[in-house]
Amino acid sequence: MSDARQAIVVRSTGSWYQIKDDQGVMYDARIRGKFRLNGKTLTNPVAVGDLVHFEIENEVENSALIKDILPRENYVVRQSPRKKHQLHLLASNIDQAMLVITIREPNLKQGVIDRFLLMTEPHDIPACIVFNKKDLYTEEDIKLYDYLSEIYTEIGYSTYLISSLVEGDAKKISETLESKTTLISGQSGVGKSTLINAIYPDLDLRTSELSESSGKGQHTTTFATMYEPTADARIIDTPGFKGLSFNNLEPMDVAHNFREFFKYSENCKFNNCLHREEPGCAIVAAMEQDQISELRYANYLQILEEIEDQNYWERHSDL
């Protein structure tokens, strides 16, 4: 590997990658060979944020070959929305993750927060939840925000109520991004690109209105891309998603990565308790005593059911 140089991946399309070397020179790169994650097949084997070794393929065209991926500190992965037996890498080597959502336009999709946290929690990646478009909220919407904010702040996640149209709100978010590499994600149409533009106007990301026919968001970010808007901040902007599924998790993985469940579960009667109808379940008892959110518990059961509906061989099609 003596002739190889090091770079960071700043853009991924799944078929080719843009990388930046230590001198800030950009190359269009492709991979040589096959890369897998924990033995599973990936739709995009190289992620934005990866540190890689590369060789120059064509100096005139600034093209390169990625030869190797350096060990990742962490990564965020989900089930591919198009190929349900494969995994899709969103990003790697990040310091924190930010989920941008809104209660209105489009309406908040039930369970999206817990599904997002199920991607970050396995690697202990700090996450915060940004409720955008507060200028559109009704009095009932504000009550819903207060309810959700209390649930998630009590278990250690930061929440923010903001509007991308309010200058002070954008500044409040920008302070959380300094000196960190942040994955920014959210459903289509929540105003993620508008928020990033409000924080960093020079980036001038493309934005789009909601579809008039469906009321749903349009995809404005096509590929995951890393930006360096200041000397100390890196953000990874990812395409908007419609849903999140998990072919990479077993039922017990879900139980272990609802952080408050894991804390109480040491008091369960059985070590392999999935916190449903098992006798002596400390999670059910804690929920009945209002120590665990009923909403979180309901979302947990739904995710568990979906994973079990994908039978073992569907989840392990590579075996």
SSE blueprint:
Blueprint: E1 5-12, E2 17-21, E3 26-31, E4 51-58, E5 63-69, E6 75-79, E7 87-92, E8 96-102, H1 112-120, E9 127-132, H2 139-154, E10 158-161, H3 167-177, E11 181-186, H4 192-199, E12 224-227, E13 234-237, H5 251-256, H6 259-265, H7 282-288, H8 294-309, H9 312-315
Parallel strand pairs: 3-5, 8-9, 8-11, 9-10, 11-13
Antiparallel strand pairs: 1-2, 1-4, 1-12, 2-3, 4-5, 6-7, 12-13
Helix pairs in contact: 3-4
How is this structure best described in words?
With 319 residues, the chain is of the alpha/beta class. The chain is 26% helix and 24% strand. It has a 5-stranded mixed barrel. A two-stranded antiparallel ribbon has the order 6-7. The longest helix has 16 residues, at 139-154. It starts with a strand and ends with a helix. Mean pLDDT is 87; it is low at 209-220.
Summarize the structure.
The chain has 9 helices and 13 strands.
Order of helices and strands: EEEEEEEEHEHEHEHEEHHHHH
Ends: how far apart? 31 Å
Q: Which outline best applies?
A: globular
Radius of gyration: 21 Å
Poorly predicted regions: 209-220
CATH superfamily assignment of the largest domain?
A: P-loop containing nucleotide triphosphate hydrolases
What is the annotated CATH architecture of the largest domain? 3-Layer(aba) Sandwich
User: Percentage of helical residues?
Assistant: 25-40%
Broad structural category: alpha/beta
CATH fold title of the largest domain: Rossmann fold
Mean pLDDT across every amino acid position: 87
Specify the number of helices. Answer: 9
Query: What does the oligomeric state look like here?
Result: single chain
Spatial arrangement of strands, main beta sheet = 1-2-3-5-4
